Each structure stands twice: as structure tokens, then as C-alpha cells.
């Protein structure tokens, strides 16, 4: 799919001898046969959202262009999702030694430069790629030897330990880059690199037999994707959420059952269905997470995907049910590619609200207020 192009662009035009260097709008010239149209990386700078310190506002500024070295690629960002982890990063929950940093780990864009001489790289200019949470690994530690690259002892994280995608350009480590199909709209693909791969990977790695009951707690950014993935994987799906008004939407996404957590005993209702083989916790509410264990089937698993800190769980129920609690750490590049491919093949749709990069603080404020339906995406 060819990108849309503006009718005009900014250029310095010299109308005559000794005239001043002045920026003006000029008509975009389309390339003819034997020519190409190139986006110029102007004056060695680009726009990026830089967090200089803990709790600083999300503010756009000019930063120096970083060229990719060997093992790296430079990407023109087309879309970058906004995640609660970005809010946590700004609040210092990922550490204080990461600042200044550029957040953003749901990155989709096109390669504009390959580091080194490019001869040994698997990547080439023009490819559509993504940068997920997992931003790099050492290929040496035990976790890497097991293929669990996102758990690398010396792993990098886009938007945390490395500058991320809240910018016009980003440098990514080659070993962690994701192939993204060009026939998928960038704003659709971006959230699949975090929210999408997290629920997709977590559910499939539980190895629960098809037809089993999977309950999804919460119907937000993670939850609305979890419902779709679980249904398309062949599971019976129940949604646990507050309010009767969400029932029809849950059914539209593919849920077989909707349980209103504000009316009656939700875990008793889930137990009447036979109990859940998996309860996918996607809403970050520490007051309700522990109670979810009561809705598990024998040997069921409470799958925690939205971290909130300490929670209380009745260990007696775990023992009596033979149940377990497990988290899941997103995924590496291949996991992301498989999550995207599955979404394409089975029509899993992420619902997004787009914001221009300059309105990043509006997107963050909307996320904090719980307003988006269902993921905010920045468009540089």
C-alpha cells in the first residue's frame, strides 16, 4: 500500500542571485521513470518526545538524529501505540537511571537506513518493520539459549533502556525487529506489538485444549483483544466486566457469555459454567484479582497480564483446586510476527484512537482517565 503524500512540502528556495535563504511551501513533484522520491532527514534533527526526568510532562522537542551502527536500523515511524507502561516509565517505575529517554514500544515504520555496510544484514531499506517491548538480547545467556529472548539477562527494552517510538525516527536493534506486512494499516498493527502479542502469546502458551472455557477479566485495551484471540483459537469465552451496557459489545467481539461483576456473585456465575481453565486478568485492579481464583476450574490458571503490584490471594483455594497463578512477559520478534499473522488470518481487530505526535500529552491524559476505546496510537 503506497503511503499518502502531501500536495506541498517545505523547501528553501533561492529565487535569484544573492537572495536570502528562506523556507517556503512548494508543490510536491512526483517521481517519473528512473527517479525516486526521498524523505530528507532535515538538518540532522527530528521531532521526539523526550522525558528528561521522573514525572516530567510528555513534550515534543527537536533532537539530534542518531545514525544506526552495525547491527542496527533507522526507521521512519509511521505509528506508535501508547501503553500504561509508558505512564509507568514516566513515573520512574522502570528505574530512575533511564532518563532522559524517549518512550514508546509499539512501533511500526519503514526502514530508511541499515547500519554498517548492510551487506550481512537481513534487513533492507523500504521494509515495513516493528519495534515491540523487547528491544534486544545478548544471544548468550541461558534464556536466549532456550529461545526465550524476551527474558534475556541483558535484554534491552524499547522506550525504556533504549529510545522508543514517540518520535519521527527511531534506531532499533536488528535482532529484535519484527516484520510487519504492508497491507496492514500501521495504526492497527502497532498495538499488536505489545497488547496483542501479550494476550496471544500468554493464552496459547497455556496449552489448554480447544473448547475449554477461557474467561477474560476486563474489556479494555488488552481485554478486547484477548476476547477475539481466545474465540478465534477455538475456546468458549466468558467476559467478566462491570455494567450491563458492555454485554452486547462483548458478544460482538465473540464472547459466548457476559458476566456483570456489579450484579451478584460473578465467580459463582463462572462456576456454574464449569469454571474457567484460564482467567485472563487484563484490568489492573488489585482489589479484585485475588477473588478471581474462586472462578477457576480444577487445575485452572489465573493468568496475570496487567501488573498492579502486590495482591492478596487465598492459598487455600489454590491448594484445593490444584490451581496456579502465572504471569507472561509479552513476546519476542517471532512471537509478534505470529500474533500479527494470526490477527490478519482470523480478522482480529484492534480498536484505536489516533493522535498526532504533537498531541502526545492529550493521549496520555486520555489513557490515565480510562477514556480510550481501546488503544491510543500516535501518528508522527
The whole-angstrom Rg is: 23 Å
According to DSSP, the number of beta strands is: 19
CATH architecture of the largest domain: Alpha-Beta Complex
CATH class designation of the largest domain: Alpha Beta
Can you characterise this structure?
The chain has helices at residues 84-90, 142-145, 186-189, 195-205, 223-232, 247-253, 266-272, 286-289, 315-321, 333-346, 360-368; strands at 8-13, 22-27, 45-49, 60-64, 72-82, 107-114, 128-131, 134-136, 156-157, 169-173, 178-179, 213-217, 236-241, 257-260, 276-281, 296-304, 324-327, 352-356, 375-379. By secondary structure, the chain is an alpha/beta fold. The protein has two domains: 45-191 and 352-378, Medium-chain alcohol dehydrogenases, catalytic domain (Quinone Oxidoreductase, Chain A, domain 1, Alpha-Beta Complex), CATH 3.90.180.10; 197-327, Rossmann fold (3-Layer(aba) Sandwich), CATH 3.40.50.720. Strands 5, 6, 7, 10, 11, 18 and 19 form a seven-stranded mixed β-sheet that branches. The chain has a six-stranded parallel β-sheet with strand order 14-13-12-15-16-17, with helices on both faces. Strand 16, helix 9 (315-321) and strand 17 (324-327) form a beta-alpha-beta unit. Helix 4 (195-205) crosses helix 5 (223-232) and helix 4 crosses helix 10. The longest helix has 14 residues, at 333-346. 42% of the residues are buried. The mean pLDDT is 94.
Q: Notable features of this structure?
A:
metal ion binding, Rossmann fold, ER, 380 residues, 22% helix, ADH-like_N, metal-binding, seven-stranded mixed β-sheet, alcohol dehydrogenase (NAD+) activity, elongated, 11 helices, Quinone Oxidoreductase, Chain A, domain 1, six-stranded parallel β-sheet, alpha/beta, 19 strands
